[in-house]
């Protein structure tokens, strides 16, 4: 088996989770180690996305050095979510603290920040994780093998980096919807109008579709639809038109609209890690979105994964072996909790009759609006404590005043680096 130059942390996938992981790893390692970020697509690239980031996700990304209030990655303040159900019943929820962002611009800014932090970036580079031996994961990158002490897989819903490891294959939920997206002209939306900073969610039989105005004035369309109903409706565009008509929403979707699709959305993995390997972001599991909260989950999990992986490399081989268990515990406690709230919202969104009743009552009940708003913020974890990262960073640097929580990482200490020998 031939080998390229080994790396300390290899991150597969340059989306939000992967780029945040690379930044977290590079910052924790500093000049002591190496981080390689690889992406199978040509860069930059577009992808289906709701383009909304919750307050917690904004804080995490800005902590990594990407300014979302000004500069190239500037976003629009997210203020409200307007929900319209079949028959036209509409209510509005506050959603302050978040940002509306162009996904391609955000991804590019995060990768730039990763490179500035010391990460090496390679696009158009497919990755396949093969095996672990002698303390290294052997990964096929393009046409060569590279050894990595720690690997973070964040290659999204359609990734194939783990295809050779059957124990890590995801299970797609029965009845899962698929995602579709498009960029529309500013004039595409008629009635109702779409103010800046407002997400319009339209729900009907067969799925739901969201619209939000991006910083450049164009409108992002992101939908979750039943693929079976799309087939019998003569395609996704026909189904989207019917959902909009049911809710009395006027949007121009002509034959020139270029839709991009995703694999089936809702899925989970029985295992999220192995010794020295972490699965993060959408790759770790996904629930049909409500207001693009997947971006927030990706930012939080990516940063945590990168910091944990790098801290373990600093601590030595035994810590690398343990980091998988620590990661699974953190993910279940933090991301899993948010996804449970999202499943509750998903049940509501998938039941148009129930949603219409809720919408009708919510237009007259401030108490119900407050309850729904609280559930919405739970989905992105806004307001929840987030101390694990600081504890791990301090431990990796030898400056921790208190021990790192057991659920975060057992025995992270900067006592020694692993052997520099190549695999």
Averaged pLDDT, please?
81
Poorly predicted ranges:
381-423
What is the N-to-C order of secondary-structure elements (H for helix, E for strand)?
EHEEHEEHEEEEEEEEEHHEEEEEHHHHHH
Q: Report the major sheet.
A: 8 strands, mixed
Number of strands: 19
Overall, the morphology is elongated
Helices, by number, come to: 11
Q: What Rg, in angstroms, do the CA atoms define? A: 22 Å
Question: What's the assembly state of these chains?
Answer: single chain
Tags for this entry?
disordered C terminus, 11 helices, eight-stranded mixed beta sheet, alpha+beta, single chain, 423 residues
Write a brief caption for the model.
The chain is of the alpha+beta class and 423 residues long.
What does this structure look like?
Strands 1, 2, 6, 7, 8, 9, 17 and 18 form an eight-stranded mixed sheet that branches. The chain is 34% helix and 25% strand. With 423 residues, the protein is α+β, with helices and mostly antiparallel strands. The protein starts with 6 loop residues before the first strand and ends in a 26-residue tail after the last helix. The chain is built from eleven helices and 19 strands. The longest helix has 22 residues, at 294-315.
């Amino acid at each position: 088996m031939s080998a390229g130059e080994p790396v300390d942390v290899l991150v597969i996938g340059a989306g939000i989770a992967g780029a945040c992981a690379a930044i977290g790893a590079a910052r924790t390692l500093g000049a002591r180690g190496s981080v390689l970020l690889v992406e199978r697509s040509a860069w930059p690239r577009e992808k289906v996305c709701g383009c909304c980031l919750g307050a917690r996700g904004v804080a995490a990304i800005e902590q990594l050095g990407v300014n979302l209030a000004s500069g190239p990655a500037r976003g629009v303040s997210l203020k409200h979510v307007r929900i319209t159900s079949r028959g036209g019943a509409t209510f509005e929820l506050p959603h302050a603290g978040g940002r509306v962002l162009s996904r391609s611009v955000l991804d590019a800014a995060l990768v730039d920040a990763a490179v500035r932090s010391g990460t090496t970036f390679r696009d158009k580079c497919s990755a396949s994780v093969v095996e672990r031996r002698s303390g290294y994961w052997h990964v096929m990158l393009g046409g060569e093998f590279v050894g990595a002490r720690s690997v973070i897989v964040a290659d999204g819903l359609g990734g194939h980096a783990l295809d050779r490891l059957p124990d890590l294959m995801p299970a797609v939920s029965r009845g899962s919807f698929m995602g579709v997206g498009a960029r529309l002209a500013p004039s595409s939306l008629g009635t109702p109008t779409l103010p800046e900073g407002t997400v319009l969610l339209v729900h009907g039989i067969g799925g739901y579709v969201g619209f939000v105005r991006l910083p450049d004035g164009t409108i992002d369309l992101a939908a979750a639809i039943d693929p079976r109903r799309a087939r019998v409706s003569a395609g996704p565009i026909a189904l989207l038109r019917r959902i909009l008509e049911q809710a009395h929403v006027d949007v121009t979707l002509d034959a020139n609209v270029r839709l991009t699709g995703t694999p089936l959305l809702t899925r989970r993995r029985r295992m999220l890690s192995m010794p020295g390997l972490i699965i993060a972001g959408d790759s770790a599991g996904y629930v049909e979105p409500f207001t693009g909260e997947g971006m927030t989950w990706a930012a939080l999990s990516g940063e945590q994964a990168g910091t944990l992986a790098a801290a373990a490399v600093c601590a030595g081989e035994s810590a690398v072996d343990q980091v998988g268990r620590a990661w699974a515990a953190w993910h279940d406690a933090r991301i899993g909790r948010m996804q449970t709230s999202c499943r509750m919202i998903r049940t509501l969104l998938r039941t148009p009759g129930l949603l219409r009743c809720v919408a009708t009552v919510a237009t007259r009940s401030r108490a119900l609006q407050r309850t729904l708003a609280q559930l919405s913020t739970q989905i992105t974890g806004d307001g929840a404590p987030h101390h694990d990262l600081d504890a791990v960073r301090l431990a990796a640097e030898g400056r921790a005043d208190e021990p790192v929580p057991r659920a975060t990482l057992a025995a992270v200490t900067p006592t020694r680096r692993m052997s520099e020998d190549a695999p």
